[in-house]
Amino acid sequence: MILGTGVSDGIVYGKALVIEEELINIEKRQIDNIEIEQKKLQTALKISKGQLLEIRERVLKEFGRDKADIFQAHMMILEDPELIDNVNSKIKEKKINVEWALKETADQFIIMFESMDNEYIRERISDIKDVFNRIIKNILGQKIFDLSNIDDKVILVAKDLTPSDTATMNKKNVLGFVTNIGGGTSHTAIMARSLEIPAIVGLRDITKRVKTGDFLILDGESGKVIINPTDEEIKEYELLKAQYDKNKRELKNIIGKESITIDGRKIELAANIGGPDDILGVNENDAEGIGLFRTEFIYMDRDTMPTEEEQFNVYKKVIQSLNPKPVIIRTLDIGGDKQVSYLKIGNEANPFLGYRAIRICLDQQNIFKTQLRALLRASIYGNLKIMFPMISSLEELLEAKSILEEVKISLDKQGISYDHDIKVGIMIEVPSTAVISHVLARHVDFFSIGTNDLIQYTVAVDRMNEKIHHLYSPFNPAVLRLIKMVIDNGHEENIWVGMCGEAAAKKEMIPILLGMGIDELSMSPTDILEVRKLIRSLKYEYVREISEKVLNMSTVKEIEGYMKNIMK
Known about the structure:
Number of strands: 16
CATH architecture of the largest domain: Alpha-Beta Barrel
Mean pLDDT: 90
Structural class: alpha/beta
Strand content: 5-15%
Number of helices: 24
């Protein structure tokens, strides 16, 4: 048995197909004609862009905009002026062939990314390699490996799979995959979850241990891989797989039922989305609304600022398609790990503590007002609520609300309709906001706790840094006490309190959050039915006792151990 990092749940067993990494043989050559080499580059870039557009359209239709944006990011690498200028300069100054100039440039980018302490950024190396290899293969006229041609049911074994490999693989015949490298936030892992196929990464030398034709058992939740298992192991995992598949089928029976505890405490289960294309998943998984619409994807999927009309049409489509269910749309949250070139935010030593989200909007009010106009205009088509991110003080909240009032007055003067009673809330993701939540609650209609940032800011841990990732936990006593404080302060002022971070769907967190009195939980659409099933099996009075006990505990280990024991 080998243990890796499970990045997509499920149990499968079958024959292995080892994907040998095709070596691209590049030799350094001195050239006489610079223009010919530079023309080769332009031709290859054009061909590569066409291929990526084709993949992006396929992914857009099958999985939605946020997954398709992976390939928009690839195109941004492809069109990066710094990249193209770097390659052209090497060709001109060193008089070397275009393939070698591309290799040198790719190596520079990869070394730079590998030196960073941020796991999320390091995992973008796979994207860079994917794009550069595509360009080089198109220059050399080599065929790009296509996993769509697999015609036997297999488990793929590879050093790594690029996002484009994963997006184009034959989903009917690929039972799952395992790789030597990779992490939970890689684009390949994200695609595996979208495909709903089990996947394990970070197995280091799995390609050396396995050969094509070996029989494998893969457990995507535990991260276990068993090579050529015994009859006894096969029987054990056949039973586990049957139970897993049964649980999946049973979840479908919960569609249409309330998210309510045994003793009548009702919780709203909403979905987090990135764009209109995610609505299909929202409806298929019976979400009770949208608790977080991340509007930054509208801004990231382009080279220029989206117009008011473009934004209005996107918001209107989402709001109409969910009506009368609530839709909470978060205003622009760019910055940190989400950069937009045309906004010229610039490099910062610590972008997560820098110029981002509401700070940009309050500084560049033309951007903010354009978005608010589009949101207000769309509000008449359903049940819209507006949410401000990254609020850290009352001053910021009051300024944001003041700008919203200015936009309302402007629309009134123009005779443009909007919901005059539109609800406004904030994300609680900064410790200072949690501490003064009793003050902020008097000025908003709801809170939504963003645990992803709240945890990392509270415990001073970069959640993407694998060296200290063990310190990043929603079970940290300080984090739990802040959450309880926010819920109590919100209720004291008669506003509802939700949560839209990853902790909202964590099985061991659900009883604690219910016991604290949370009103709403928003998560990935695919998690909703599993969470609803759990809620319907719990008693509110019981989880209140659990919550009280947990809040009196002192360590993450103590809390995790207690919750794992309860959830057995």
